[in-house]
């Protein structure tokens, strides 16, 4: 029997490309982790494909997700973004992104790599391979995502509840939640070994 991709990526080329090249691949770049956390916050209540298709517009609107630039956004920038139909136009989420950029800067004052260390500490700085056999085995949150969500909130981040944080952790390779029947499962195991 030929291995099949995880069921959730379907046949949409954008989703398939994301599944095959990004989801579950360990990310340790501080800026890239910031971008992913913000996008996961914007996804709250929506489907991930909506965010994926709008990602280029988000990257443009949020200055390449450079936290130093986003942290300087003012009310004028918020109003500008509320008129941008290329992104999700939620005042709370836009203001949350700005707040998260400021919190990111506070964390990074502790030194280079401080944000990634804060995040990856939640899983002992290694990918947890859940070895899921069935889609029914995938969970919405974990003890680690609950703890990390609390840590992030204490540090001033928003739109980072346990469910959002778990989706983030899956996406950036803190968890390998590809089904064991998916060809990407083994690939992500190898990538996790290389990055540890």
> Which class in CATH terms?
Mainly Alpha
Low-confidence stretches: none
CATH level-four homologous superfamily name:
Hypothetical protein, domain 2
Question: For the residues shown, what is the average pLDDT?
Answer: 95
What's the number of extended β-strand segments? 2
CATH architecture: Orthogonal Bundle
Query: First CA to last CA: what distance?
Result: 32 Å
Please summarize the sheet with the most strands. Answer: 2 strands, parallel
One letter per element, helices H and strands E, the order comes to HHHHHHHEHHEH
- Using the CA coordinates, give the radius of gyration: 17 Å
> Helical amount among residues, as a percent range?
55-70%
- Compute the number of structural domains: 1
Structural class: mainly alpha
CATH topology: Endonuclease III, domain 1
Shape: globular
Strand content: under 5%
Strand order of the largest sheet: 1-2
* Total of helices: 10
Describe the protein.
- The chain has a two-stranded parallel ribbon with strand order 1-2.
- The chain has helices at residues 13-21, 30-43, 48-61, 67-70, 75-82, 91-108, 114-120, 143-154, 162-171, 183-195, and strands at residues 128-129, 175-176.
- It is globular, with a radius of gyration of 17 Å.
- The protein has 196 residues and is mostly helical.
- The protein has ten helices and two strands, in the order αααααααβααβα.
- The mean pLDDT is 95.
- α2 (30-43) packs across α9 (162-171).
- The longest helix has 18 residues, at 91-108.
- The protein has one domain (7-195): Hypothetical protein, domain 2 (Endonuclease III, domain 1), CATH 1.10.340.30.
- 56% of the residues lie in helices and 2% in strands.
């Amino acid at each position: 029997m030929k291995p099949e991709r995880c069921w959730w990526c379907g046949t949409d080329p954008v989703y398939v490309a994301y599944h095959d090249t990004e989801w579950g691949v360990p990310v340790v770049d501080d800026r890239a982790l910031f971008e992913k956390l913000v996008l996961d916050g914007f996804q709250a209540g929506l489907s991930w494909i909506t965010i994926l298709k709008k990602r280029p517009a988000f990257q443009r609107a949020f200055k390449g997700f450079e936290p130093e630039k986003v942290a300087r956004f003012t009310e004028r920038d918020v109003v500008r973004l509320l008129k941008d139909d290329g992104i999700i136009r939620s005042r709370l989420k836009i203001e949350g992104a700005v707040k998260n950029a400021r919190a990111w800067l506070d964390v990074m004052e502790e030194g280079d790599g401080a944000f990634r260390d804060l995040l990856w500490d939640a899983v002992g700085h290694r990918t947890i391979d859940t070895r899921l056999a069935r889609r029914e085995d995938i969970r919405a949150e974990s003890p680690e995502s609950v703890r990390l969500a609390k840590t992030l909130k204490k540090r001033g981040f928003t739109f980072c509840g346990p469910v959002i944080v778990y989706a983030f952790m899956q996406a950036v390779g803190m968890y390998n939640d590809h089904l064991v029947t998916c060809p990407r499962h083994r690939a992500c195991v190898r990538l996790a070994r290389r990055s540890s």
